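One such given next:
>
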Amino acid sequence: MIWLGRRILRDFPHWELQTKAAFVIGVILLVFALGVALFGPSEVRAVSLVGSGALLLVLQVTVLWANRGMVTIFTRAQRHYLAGELEQARDILEAARMEGANDARVLTLLGNVYRQLGDLEKSHSILYEALDKAPNHYFPLYGFGRTLLSEGNYAEAAQVLRRAVDAGAPPVVRVDLAETYYRAGQHTEALAELKNIDVKLLAGEPHRQLIAAYLFYRLDGGSPPDTGLIDAGMPYWEATAERFCDTRYGVDLAQDIQHMRGRIE
């Protein structure tokens, strides 16, 4: 609730004049209606409470309307991001940011874009800003954790990704957390996370299936990933190792790739 209030106060100066006026009038009427409900004659209190509920709904609609452009910006950029069109996504988000759009979701996506472009310094800075705006939301926590991991800062990455999982991140994020624990030398914790993963949830994500199977193989002495899974999931990891070849993570990942491509096959 506090975060929502801070967000409204931050975004309010960028709203259209008519929307600002509607919101202010709505707040004034809500305060008046609540005052009547609490201190007015008993015969009008029930009506005032109903009116207060209606005004809250109107205020919610007003906020959604005021931020409709933000939703459009995020959706457009996200489509480019998912299609691998990172420069287009970056340009849309940076333009919005220059216009004062500092929504935590927009900043998180922009930080993720910069990470995928290999610019970890910008990714770190922007995701840190996103976390300042939404410190307990899994979306910026996950993005920041992935950037810390890519930098090779394994201990801090594990802490942040743990917070993301505890904050309600999708269950597949446990794979990322397990990998981070593994690289931080926390093998017991890594294996515990892997055992908590429902493999059915990894369908359609061969890169996560591959790293999960590989970590099980390394930590639990199970069977190594089969060649079909290696072929399907390896392009993602090879591209990741190349992108971060100058970091500790890129070096460690390249060694794992060599192991999977060599000894396992």
About this structure: The CA atoms of residues 6 and 133 lie 8 Å apart. The chain has three domains: 2-66, 71-135, 138-265.
